[in-house]
Amino acid sequence: MKILVAADGSPYTKRMLAYLAAHDESFGSKQNQFTVLTVVGPIPARAASALSKPIVHEYYADEAEATFKPIRAFFSKQGVEAQFEHRVGNAGDQIAAVARKGKFDLVVMGSHGHGALARLVVGSVTGRVLASCEVPVLVVR
C-alpha cells in the first residue's frame, strides 16, 4: 500500500506518528511504501523578489528539514524506510494534489480538532484535504 503521511511538525503530527506506531499491524508492513510530505507556506512575493532563487529554495528546504528531522528519526527507530518530499503553497491543496498525482492508496494526517465555528473563521487543512482528496484519508485527532 502506498501511504502519504502529511506532516507539519506540530504536536498533532506527533500524535499521528504515535498512532501509526501503535497500529504497526496495519502500517508496519515492509510492503507499505511511505512518503512523508510537508508543505511550506510561500514567502510573500514582494520579499521573494528581493532574494535570489537559491536563497529562496534553501529557505524552503531548511523549513521542510526542520519538520522532517524528528520524523526521520521516528521512521528509523521503527525500521521503516520512507521518502521525504516538500511542496510550497496551500497545504490542503498540495496534499490532495500529491495524493492524486502519486496514486497513493491512503493519506494519513493529524488534525488540530477545531470545531465547525473555528473552521469557518480560520479554515482547516484537514477539511480542505477531505473535500478535495480522491483517496481515503485517515485523520488522527
What is the compact description of this entry?
With 141 residues, the protein is of the alpha/beta class. It has helices spanning 11-22, 24-27, 45-49, 53-78, 91-101, 116-122, 125-132; strands at residues 2-6, 33-40, 82-88, 106-110, 137-140.
Q: What topology emerges from the helices and strands here?
A:
Blueprint: E1 2-6, H1 11-22, H2 24-27, E2 33-40, H3 45-49, H4 53-78, E3 82-88, H5 91-101, E4 106-110, H6 116-122, H7 125-132, E5 137-140
Parallel strand pairs: 1-2, 1-4, 2-3, 4-5
Which structural traits does this protein have?
141 residues, alpha/beta, five-stranded parallel β-sheet, 7 helices, 5 strands, 52% helix, 21% strand, globular
Polypeptide structure, described:
It is a single chain. The chain is α/β, with parallel strands linked by helices and 141 residues long. The protein is 52% helix and 21% strand. The protein has a 5-stranded parallel sheet, with helices on both faces. α5 (91-101) packs parallel to α7.
Q: Please list the strands of the largest sheet in the order they lie side by side.
A: 3-2-1-4-5
Q: Please report the number of helical segments.
A: 7
- Morphology: globular
Number of strands: 5
What is the helix/strand order?
Answer: EHHEHHEHEHHE
Strand content: 15-25%
Share of helical residues: 40-55%
- For the terminal residues, how far apart are their CA atoms? 22 Å
